[in-house]
Amino acid sequence: xxxxxxxxxxxxxxxxxxxxxxxxxxxxxxxxxxxxxxxxxxxxxxxxxxxxxxxxxxxxxxxxxxxxxxxxxxxxxxxxxxxxxxxxxxxxxxxxxxxxxxxxxxxxxxxxxxxxxxxxxxxxxxxxxxxxxxxxxxxxxxxxxxxxxxxxxxxxxxxxxxxxxxxxxxxxxxxxxxxxxxxxxxxxxxxxxxxxxxxxxxxxxxxxxxxxxxxxxxxxxxxxxxxxxxxxxxxxxxxxxxxxxxxxxxxxxxxxxxxxxxxxxxxxxxxxxxxxxxxxxxxxxxxxxxxxxxxxxxxxxxxxxxxxxxxxxxxxxxxxxxxxxxxxxxxxxxxxxxxxxxxxxxxxxxxxxxxxxxxxxxxxxxxxxxxxxxxxxxxxxxxxxxxxxxxxxxxxxxxxxx
Length: 402
Ligand code: ASP
Ligand code: MG
Known about the structure:
By secondary structure, the chain is α/β, with parallel strands linked by helices. The protein has a domain at 3-173: Carbamate kinase (3-Layer(aba) Sandwich). It is built from eleven helices and 20 strands. It has an eight-stranded mixed beta sheet, sandwiched between helices. It has a four-stranded mixed beta sheet with strand order 5-4-7-8. It has a four-stranded antiparallel beta sheet with strand order 13-18-20-19, with helices on both faces. Strand 19 and strand 20 (378-384) form a beta hairpin. Helix 1 (16-31) crosses helix 3. The chain is globular, with a radius of gyration of 24 Å. The structure holds aspartic acid and magnesium ion. Aspartic acid (ASP) is lined by residues 10, 41-42, 47, 73, 134-135, 149-153.
């Protein structure tokens, strides 16, 4: 007998039929003699719908009331699932955040789970299935809270940790993590095993299967996860510690995103302090600068600085630069039609020549690299947006992922 946390996302509980299907999945696990805690999201689209309603009432809807409103989405699905399980003659009970309680800390709409009272539920698991609403909790001063969009993943990980679960399975509408976007690149392959850091790098650059902060928490406490589809029986992707993975390939996945923009300051002075003067006001405005390139200056007087930021912060960034009296430059240019393409792999640490191979592959496709950044397990390049799929396909092929 083992203890399992089974988390079901919004599409998995999006209709009554789907909730009944989920009840059947749980029944199978329960019939094997396992102790089950099921954690549910709201029906798909529900949370957005509730947010929209609050905005129709007021553009500046009170955050405390917003959390009361949003928590209702998960309340609905957990009651329906507990009822569907009872219909299958399985003893089951739903518990709301305040009944457990799931204690959180931090601001409304952006809280964190800090503790869960495990006693009552632990006892109940000897009799039946506990069904828990994801995404929400209660603060010390007894206000209903939510823990950020996609937060039921974080609830699942917190429960896995606090209940010392043997398994934590994230059921969703895709059958796992892919080597690249399967909707655009049909040769994409499902990855059987991936490390936490690779998963984080892949999701931060576009492959969104799980909430990133939930993966971070799992990494911090070494909680193994599995992501799999609610709608097929196929094996999913296991996410765990790097030591448990045998890396025969240098690259695990190729990701891309189109939410960056590139800015260039032409003709800035080449002397100490200039870069600091450029970036200080951006930092003060909480603009996140990603990649930075400074050209070498031929005459040691003037140089160009290029950097990337989030596309939706482009106008704000330009304005700050233009109003910045402490820097001199000839011109600011920008390019919004860029994409970031990244190769990710814990195997690259021990494989020389990965960078060269990536650049050579892009050159063969006549793709110009506009900016580069690297970390231990990731190499990202900025290229023209129109070349995105070409680049992804090429990299997927040359790193033996097809
Ligand atoms: N229902 C919440 C959301 O849509 C939480 C979740 O689905 O994980 O963000
Ligand atoms: Mg979700």
